[in-house]
Structure formats: C-alpha cells, structure tokens
Amino acid sequence: MDADLDAIAAIRGFNRFHTRWVGAVGGSLHGSGLALSEARVLYELAQRDGVLASVLSRELDLDPAYLSRILKRFLQAGWLTRETAPVDRRARLLRLTPAGHAAFRPLDQASQRQAATALARLAPGEKRELVQALGRVQALLGDGEARRDPSPPIIRRHRPGDIGWIIASHARFYAEEFGWDASFEVLVAEIAGAFLRDFKPGLEAGFIAEWRGEPVGSSIVVREDEETARLRLVLVDKRAQGLGLGKRLVREAIAFARSAGYRRMVLWTNDILHAARAIYQAEGFRLVAEERHQSFGQDLVGQSWQLDLRGATP
C-alpha cells in the first residue's frame, strides 16, 4: 500500500510538472488563448481530413457536452466546418477551415520550439534516455492501442553500455526467479568482462534484443577454439517474454557462428531452465553431458549441449 501511495504521489507530481512545462497553468497554452483541452482538440482536427465528434470524444477522453462547447467556439471563430458523413447521413464530419489551420500553425510552431529548446540542453545520450523514458511511460500507463507499441522488437549487435545491462539483468532475473545468490552475478560479470577485454572481431559477437528503445534480451558468442564457438548469456527480460525473442537471439548467434567458420557450437545451462532448453533442442542442439553441482546457493543439475554447425539448418 505504501508503494501505491508513493506511485500516486509521483504521478500527481509529474502531472503538475507537465502542466507547468507546457505553459497550461494560466489557461492559455503558448499564449494562444486556448486552454490545454481546446488545444488538444485543435491538434487532432489539424491532423485529420474529417473526423466524427464521437471519435474525438472517445480518443481524447473528453465529456461529449464539454467537447460540444469547444467545437461550438471553433465554429463561431470560423475555424471549423461540419459536413454530412458519407456512411451515416445523421453524423457530421468535422474539418478545419483554412482559418482553423492558420490558428493552429503558431501553436504548433511554439510547441516545436519549446521541445527543441529543451532538447538543446541535453547531451545525445540524455536525449535517448528521454525518448526511452517517455515511451516507457506511455506503454505502462496507456490502455488499448496506447499499450501496443507499433515498432516490433529488433535484434542488434552490442554497443557501449549493453554489457552492464546484461550483468545487471542476469543477476536480477535469476535472484527473483530462482533465488540464486550474488556469486552468480560475480560469474556473469567475469564472463561479460572477459568478452569485452578479449573481444575478437569477426570471431565473437554480442546480440541485444531491443524493444521500445530499451534492451530486453541478450546472447553472446565467444571463441572456444578454432573449430568451436560457445553460446553464453542468453536472456529475455520478463516484460518481453512471449515475443519469440529467445529463439531469435539463439538463431542470430548460430548464424554468426556458421558465418565465422566454426564447425560446432557448445553451451552450458541448468536443467531447471525449461524454456531455454526447449529453444536449444528445437534449434538442433543435443544434450551431451549432465552433472550435479552446488552453485549460486542452490543444488542444481548442469547440462552441456552441442550443435553441429555443418548440418542442415532447422
């Protein structure tokens, strides 16, 4: 309950900040003479060539009577026309007039300038963080279409900062899901650190699954010997599970190992990782050894798997 109260206070605090930031406290957004809700309606009308009032009311979550008063003001100002809808002659399509577009233009330009001024103070990395944070807020607090990101997840090569994410994400995931202790984080840090320190371009690679502008998964290929590649640090964050990213990350790693000229790929895992083992088996890996061990504060069964890279692709 305390956590909910903290979250509520944070949301309300952000609402106050945002209202001040956009200049809506005084009831005249960017000096336009329009309240924030009126400016939102004008913006939506400017983006569309004809829209029903019922659609605006639903999408903007505005009371129909309140919206009607806003539209009446726009009509009186000569900003708006109403035409009979071709599908339902009882409905009216709303369109901005040239005067309406002219009224919208300085408001839009002022909003663009405000955003550009704010971004000018930020370093490139901070701009990326801002975009990611804004997208994350919409994904978490939105509903329906707002929660569905139109951009699909991507798989890309690792870049600076990703290895730190891999270490932290592995430590957090295995602690929460399986109760593994800090010694696992130590192991992951050693593996990831060695990958960076001894990185062999063309023979080794790191792959990152990215969704909504944030890393959500990983896989790494390292050189075992001239003929053997090892697959390591395969993970998909809980928020991105069910999107097929585990399979894609493993396939990217396999494809890279083949292209690098390796004859086989090996990996080590534990038998409790059922989803991962199912992916490995589906991609053609075969179990070659098992051994009980006590690690990370748990009694586990380690497994070694191997894939012949010279065989046909699945």
What does this structure look like?
The chain is of the alpha+beta class and 314 residues long. It folds into two domains: 2-121, Winged helix-like DNA-binding domain superfamily/Winged helix DNA-binding domain (Arc Repressor Mutant, subunit A); 154-308, Aminopeptidase (3-Layer(aba) Sandwich). The chain is 48% helix and 23% strand. The chain has ten helices and ten strands. A seven-stranded mixed β-sheet has the order 4-5-6-7-8-10-9, with helices on both faces. Strand 9 (286-295) and strand 10 (298-308) form a beta hairpin. The chain is elongated, with a radius of gyration of 27 Å.
Summarize the structure.
With 314 residues, this protein is α+β, with helices and mostly antiparallel strands. Helix 2 crosses helix 5 and helix 7 packs antiparallel against helix 8.
Q: CATH fold name of the largest domain, please?
A: Aminopeptidase
Low-pLDDT stretches are: none
**CATH homologous superfamily placement of the largest domain:** Gcn5-related N-acetyltransferase (GNAT)
The first-level CATH class name of the largest domain: Alpha Beta
Radius of gyration: 27 Å
User: How many runs of DSSP E, i.e. beta strands?
Assistant: 10
Query: Element order, helices and strands?
Result: HHEHHEEHHEHHEEEHEHEE
Strand order of the largest sheet: 4-5-6-7-8-10-9
What is the percent of helical residues? 40-55%
Q: How many helical elements?
A: 10
Q: What number of structural domains do the residues give?
A: 2
Cα shape: elongated
Measure the end-to-end span. Answer: 50 Å
> What fraction of residues sit in β-strands?
15-25%
Q: What structural category do the secondary elements indicate? A: alpha+beta
The averaged pLDDT comes out at 86
